Amino acid sequence: MRGFAARVRIFDGHNDALSRIATSSRPDAAAGFLDGDGDGHVDLPRAAAGGLAGGCFAVFTCPPPHDAYEDGSYFAPAPHAPSWREAMIQIGLLLRLERESEGRIRVARTPADLDASGLVAVLHLEGAEPIGTRLEELELLHAAGMRSLGLTWSRPNDFATGVPFGFPGSPDRGPGLSSAGKALVAACNELRILVDVAHLNSRGFWDVHALQDGGPPLVASHAGAHALSPSPRNLTDDQLRAIGESGGLVGINFHTGFLRADGADDPDTPQELIVAHAAHAAEVAGIDAVALGSDFDGATMPAALGDAAGLPGLLDAFRAAGFAEGELEQVAGGNWRRVLEATWAA
Ligand code: ZN
User: Is the Cα torsion angle 12, 13, 19, 22 positive or negative in sign?
Assistant: First the structure.
């Protein structure tokens, strides 16, 4: 069983390690990521222990204060200038981690980089707030290595509107993409940057679907099945089907609040629910469209999974539910590999 995990290249669609480290009170949090200080859910030693070969590392700026979730005031645009500054810090942090890791972390800029040894990091922007509507910043972000962009976090910005977190709820809330949002998708397509629809509302999702028609695959990096857990953050069967038809994927989110039918944010949640969401997505969208999108360092994990070192146990749960070895290879990393290559290859 563990031999399988060592052989398969596990690729995970979303972690928040960069914003965790950037906002840590520890002055040595970056070194702690390389050496393993036990903070959060993922660091280099735990990635190695779990067989994690790569993942999307999110740049997430201007997180709202915790009490803003209670009164709903988090659902407001993040200011542009501080978002840009925070993005520069988090990108600088990843580039420093790559340099100081001496080959143990590699930022992937081309399809061939995805096969590098060590931990492969795809630089992802979660929410386009750091970018101005004339899009010059996009060129700089691309030059710095950014290869994946989520139009929104769960709030509106100049480009699109994210979904709020209320449970239960529909993702169909708020308007679709602005004209600047449509221009941003077109610019990403030209630069071969993956466009991520996680956190995006329903009308925005279908706008991206129309813009990508016949083009790059539709991707939701970290989300679940609305049929199993009616969170606005999860995808309806129609959305899952469209993702499958586009040749794209959904990375199944491990956050307990998006897995459970009651939406509870509770670590006492079986990791088998991750498998159930994956099985539902496979039934609706096809096995080619199912992948992992943990949300490590940004969410509440099922206790049995714990952190990145628990990934082999999650693969065992997939196997116990009847996933064949070839299907597991696809879900664990093969589908992400295919979609990134299809998006990035000119
Ligand atoms: Zn997220």
Answer: positive
